[in-house]
Amino acid sequence: WIRSKEEKNNLISLQLTQRGYMDRLVKGLEDGAPILIENIGESIDPVLEPVISRSFISKGRRLVLKLGEKEVDVACAKDEGGVPTDKPLFKLYIQTKLPNPDYIPEVQAQTTLVNFTVTEMGLEDQLLAVVVKKERPDLEEQRLFLVEQQNQFTIKLKELEDDLLYRLATAEGDILADEDLIISLENTKVTVTEINVKVKEGKQTEIDINKAREAYRPTAARGSTIYFLINQLNVIDHMYQFSLGAFNFIFSKALDKAEPVDPENAKDVLSARCDNLLDSVTFTCFSYVTRGLFERHRLIFSALLTIKVLQGSDKLSQEDVDLLIKAPKNMERENPCSTWLQDSAWFSIVALSGSNEVFAALPQDVEGSWKRWKEWVESEQPEKMPLPQEWKRLDGFHRLQVVRAVRPDRMMLAIGQWVRDSIGNKYVDAIPFDLKVSFEDSAPAVPIFFLLSPGVDPVVPVRLLGHQLGKTEEEGKFVTVSLGQGQEPVAEKALDRMYVSGGWAMLQNIELVARWLPKLEKKLEALSEGAHPDFRVFLSALPQKVVPVQILQNSIKLTNEPPSGLKANMLRAYMLFDNTVWDNSSKQGELKAIVFALCFFHSVVCERRKFGAIGWNRAYPFNEGDLTVCIKVAYNYLENNAKVPWDDIKYIFGEIMYGGHITDNWDRRLCMSYLSVYLKEELLDGMTLFPGFATPGPMTHKQYMEYVDEQLEREVPIAYGLHPNSEINFMTKQADELCHAISELQPRGGGASAGLTLQEKVKRLLDDVLEKLPEEFSLLELEERVDERTPYTNVFLQEVDRMSKLLYELRRSLVELDMGLRGDLSMSEAMETLMDSLYDDKVPARWAALSWPSLRPLGSWLQNMLDRHKQLLDWTADMNTPKVTWISGLFNPQAFLTAVMQVTARKNEWPLDKLAIVADVTKRGPEEIEGATREGAYVHGLYIEGARWDTGSSSLEESFMKDLYPLLPVILIKAATQDKLDGKEVYACPVYKTQSRGPTYVFTAGLRTKAPPSKWILAGVSLLMDVVE
Question: Is this prediction's pTM over 0.85?
Answer without folding.
Answer: no
